[in-house]
Amino acid sequence: MSVGGVRERSKARRRDAITRTAYRLFAERGFAATTIADIAAEADVAPRTVTLYFRSKHDIAFSRFIASTQRLTDALRGRSPKQSALDVLGEWLRAEAAARSDLDDLQQRMFDANPELQALQRAHLADAIQEGTAAVAADVGASPEDVGPRIVAAATMAVMYEVYCSRHDLERERALEIAFAFLKAGVSALSR
């Protein structure tokens, strides 16, 4: 067993412990009321260790969510000419749902308990939505500034939020079906 492999697994476990602890404390006590020192004490690490992994509480709260939306942005930017923006979005949502774990449920509890984090969560979707607007515009031969692609992007943001936050797999799959029927109809209307 390589030393690098052991070290990397140890770092991953420590990062996971810090993240889990922070999410739980943010859900139980509130984001504003929880300090880095509280997280460190509960995770059984030094406060400096927490700040080595995450610069701030905000970074802890949003690290997984931002990584997820970055995967969508990257997928939209790297899509093949044969893939529509909605195809990419569907693949991303299904991949995110398949990779979902108890940590995602804990993250959702944290967001549910902290309205200020929910507002920031929606703001963090903005980059992916802008990329989606440009992709939809390209799909229908319009400008990203046109109202149609912007409306589709706004509807997509609502769909992403609803599907991403669904707690049950069956509910999520049904939400995906309904969402994509709705979005495809919207894009189809733009193409006329």
Automatic annotation (TrEMBL):
It comes from Planotetraspora mira. This is TetR family transcriptional regulator. The keyword Glycoprotein does not apply. Residues 12-72 form the HTH tetR-type domain. It comes from the Bacteria. PANTHER family: HTH-TYPE TRANSCRIPTIONAL REGULATOR RUTR (PTHR30055), MYCOFACTOCIN BIOSYNTHESIS TRANSCRIPTIONAL REGULATOR MFTR-RELATED (PTHR30055:SF238). The keyword Cytoplasm does not apply. Pfam families: TetR_C_14 (PF17754), TetR_N (PF00440). GO terms for molecular function: DNA-binding transcription factor activity; transcription cis-regulatory region binding. Residues 35-54 bind DNA. Keywords: DNA-binding, Transcription, Transcription regulation.
